[in-house]
Design a protein that fits this description.
With 255 residues, this protein is of the alpha/beta class. Helices cover 52% and strands 12% of the residues. The protein has nine helices and six strands, in the order βαβαβαβααααααββ. Bound molecules: FE2/S2 (inorganic) cluster.
Length: 255
């Protein structure tokens, strides 16, 4: 497994133009030393980062995704997009956790235009953390094929995730601690589990079946699900007309 100091993690960074991007620029101009592992995409606000961007970055083989925004209260837009970025970050981390990807591979930080040294420190710290984790998938014990299926399934859930966020989980607090507490609360975990988790697993199963018919046992083994959980999900897939059961072969095929 590639991990430790011999491993160079690939990081994709989404930086707000007004603060973190300028901070990164200042770090470069000031010649502060930081790990050169990040590839930067400049956005006008951290609130513009869509969960789909994050999932796609991991799907494309990045080991970490970094989002850099203005400090709270300093966003340049009346909508204060950095608060939206916090909600997005929490929900995307939950999605990553559900598909078995270490959520710490996604990091959100505030860096102002004058904080070149802070940008360098944050980059070094994130790079070190990713080095200790190793390549995406490897340290999570997932082979690349299954990892891609899970990330693709997560990507398919994004429109639904955004709908759930808008209808059930939209909040506006003042501090990071309040966001942490809310998104780690029993209530939010319950909503996420009830509305997202089952659909996510069904999506994984359907993507797995795109390669051919599968039995209950094969699905159970591939996705590390109990046979009873597989039966429950296959029952849902059958009732929604997504799969057919072949009693002669005792397996399922896509409808
Ligand atoms: Fe920088 Fe909104 S303008 S986070």
């Amino acid at each position: 497994m590639a991990s430790g100091h011999d491993f160079d993690p690939k990081i994709l960074g989404f930086l707000c133009n007004w603060c973190c991007y300028a901070g990164a620029d200042l770090a470069g101009v000031s010649r502060y030393q930081y790990a050169p592992n990040i590839r930067i995409i400049r956005l006008m606000c951290s609130g513009r980062v869509d969960p789909a961007f994050v999932i796609r970055a991991f799907f494309n083989g990045h080991d970490g995704v970094f989002i850099g925004g203005c400090w709270l209260g300093e966003c340049h837009y009346v909508t204060e997009g950095n608060y939206d970025a916090m909600s997005m970050m929490h929900l995307t981390k939950k999605l990553l956790k559900y598909i078995g990807v270490n959520p710490n591979r996604l990091r959100l930080e505030w860096v102002s235009a004058s904080e070149g040294i802070r940008f360098a420190e944050v980059m070094n710290s994130f790079t070190d953390e990713l080095k200790s984790m190793g390549h995406i998938g490897e340290s999570e014990g997932q082979d690349q094929h299954m990892l891609k299926i899970k990330l693709e399934a997560a990507g398919k859930m994004i429109p639904y995730l955004k709908l759930v966020e808008r209808e059930k989980l939209r909040v506006r607090f003042k501090t990071e601690e309040e966001y942490d507490e809310y998104f780690n609360s029993e209530d939010v975990n319950h909503v996420f589990h009830e509305l997202i988790a089952d659909k996510l697993v069904m999506s994984e199963i359907l993507l797995l079946m795109a390669r051919g018919a599968l039995s209950n046992g094969e699905i159970s083994e591939a996705l590390a699900l109990s046979p009873s959980d597989v039966s429950k999900h296959m029952g849902n897939c059958l009732s929604e007309g997504l799969v057919r059961y072949d009693p002669a072969k005792k397996n399922y095929v896509l409808a």
